[in-house]
Structures are given as structure tokens and as C-alpha cells.
Amino acid sequence: MLNDVTFGQYYPAQSFVHRLDPRLKLLMLIAYIVAVFMAKTFYGLALCALFAVVATLVARVPFGSVLRSVKGILFILVFTAVINLFVHGGEHLLAEWGIIKIYLEGVLFAVFLMFRLIFLVLGSSLLTLTTTPVSLTDGIESLLKPLNLIKFPVHALALIMSIALRFIPTLIDETNRIIAAQKARGADFETGNIARRVKAVVPILIPLLISAFRRAEELGDAMDARCYTNSPKRTKYKKLAFTLRDLVAALVGAALIAGVVLFNVYAYQIWPVAYDYLVIL
Fold first, then answer.
1. Average pLDDT, whole number, for the chain?
2. Is the pLDDT of residue 27 over 80?
């Protein structure tokens, strides 16, 4: 039931992307998100799509694992598309039913927005698939170090995020086992109205919460038994360091943003005939 959830799951492989510094991958994700939001034409979105495809190929991650992350936002995609389809105005009327009018500009804007959301999810999913939770939290802690000057508990935040990311796959497996056990007892989660389905979830949530609290207590006891202290001066087994590989990736991220900006500025010169339709924002 929850096998399509990819957030927090790591796909082990030996690739260029896997070996990148986690701090750079976080900055690259931010640059990618900025590029997606800066894109005002389908040209810019196509460049972002090309970047995501090439990054997935270089990372040697199956496309199915990356695309499964989109299933979790299907409702949001459909909802936002329908709202914009009926609300967005324009000049080229396609259909009309009473007060409901659908314009060509509204259709293009709805498609544009759907692709934008999809690319955002794909970029975040690729980050978690190519970065271990420990490396990811180490990178976040390193990037947030300047906050130590204002006494912000950066190390505690990094520890909380590391534990949360590690527990996501565990809780997903636990949920699947509970669902399988409830189905073996005759529980039905797929038929009936909304109220019945919500009521059927209760036998899953209660044992799941009990299991989560039990695991949290066991983890706390294990940390106390090993004399763990939340000291900001703790040493690390692996030291993060930028390499030539990271410099190449940083240049690629800069080229992506530059390409999107150029498409925004020179879209008319690229394809004047389709300019009015491909420039959305």
C-alpha cells in the first residue's frame, strides 16, 4: 500500500551523483527549485526536465523509483489543474457551459503548473535517493553552522532530522505489516464510502503509534547506554570536503539557471510563431 513512497529511501549505487558532497547537492536542489520557479516558458521547463533526466541517468537510479514519488501528489496535481482550468481567463475560448468557460490560455497554464509541481517533486526525490540520511543531515548541519552564532541548536536539529529520515522506511514497513495483518483478519480498506474508509484506518493508526513510541523509547535508551551527549564539539568519522567533481556539478547548476534566464529573455527570438502560447507567465 505504501510501496510507492520514496521520500527518505536511499538507492545504493556507485555514481557521480552519489559521490557528490551532500552540501553541494542541497545547494543544487535549491538552485533547481529556483530555476523551476523562474521558468516562465515551456522552454525553461523543458530545460529543467532535461536536467532532471540527465541527473537520473548519471545517478544510475531507475526512473521508476523517481517517478513513484509523483503518485503521492496526484490529488494535488489534479486539484490545482482543475481550479486553474476553470479560473484562468484568456482570449481564445475553447468551451463554455453556462458561467463555466475554458480558455486555451487556462489549459496551457494548468499544464504548465502541473509540470512545475512534478519537477519539484522529482528533484527532491532524486536528492533523497542518492544521499544517505546521515550524509544529508551532516550537510544540513554544515550549511547551518553560521546559526551557532545566535545560539541556535544546529546539532540538535540535524540529529532530529537524521532520526526522522531513518525512521521513514521503518514506519512504512511497519504500516505494511499492520495492514497485511488486518487484512488477514478480514479488514477491508478499499471499499465503502469515505466515512467507512476513515473508520477502517483507526485499527492501523493505533498499533502504528504504539510501535513508533516503543521504537523511540528503545532508541533513547540505546543512546543513553552509549553515553551520547548533545555536544556541538563532537567529532565526525567522515569529514566533508569539496572536490573537482563538486566544482563541475556547481558549474552545471549555474548553467541551468543561466539557461532558464536566457529562455525567459529570448523566447520570442527562438520561436516567434509559438511565443504567445509558450510564454505562460
1. 79
2. yes
Q: What is the mean pLDDT of residues 269-278?
A: 50
* Separation between Cα atoms, residue 77 and residue 26, nearest integer Å: 25
With a cut of 60, say whether residue 119 has pLDDT above it: yes
Q: How far apart are CA 51 and CA 54, in angstroms?
A: 5
Cα–Cα distance list, 216 to 98, 224, 236 (Å):
57, 12, 24
Amino acid making up residue 165: L
Beta partners for 25? none
Buried b (16+ CB within 10 A) or exposed e, 109-133: bbbbbbbbbbbbbbbbbbbbbbbbb
Specify the amino acid at residue 263. F
Q: Model pTM greater than 0.90?
A: no
Residue with cell 525567459: 264
The DSSP output letter for 155 is H
Ramachandran region, residue 67 (left: φ > 0; alpha: ψ -120 to 50; beta: rest):
alpha
For residue 271, give the C-alpha cell: 520561436
Instruction: Give backbone dihedrals phi and psi of 103, rounded to 5 degrees, phi first.
Output: -110, 155
186-199: average pLDDT: 71
Residues 20/22/27/30 CA torsion (nearest 10 deg): 110
pLDDT at position 281:
47
**What's residue 275's pLDDT?**
46
Task: Break the chain into its structural domains and give their ranges.
Answer: 1-153+237-281, 166-229
Distance from C-alpha of 91 to C-alpha of 105, rounded to nearest angstrom: 7
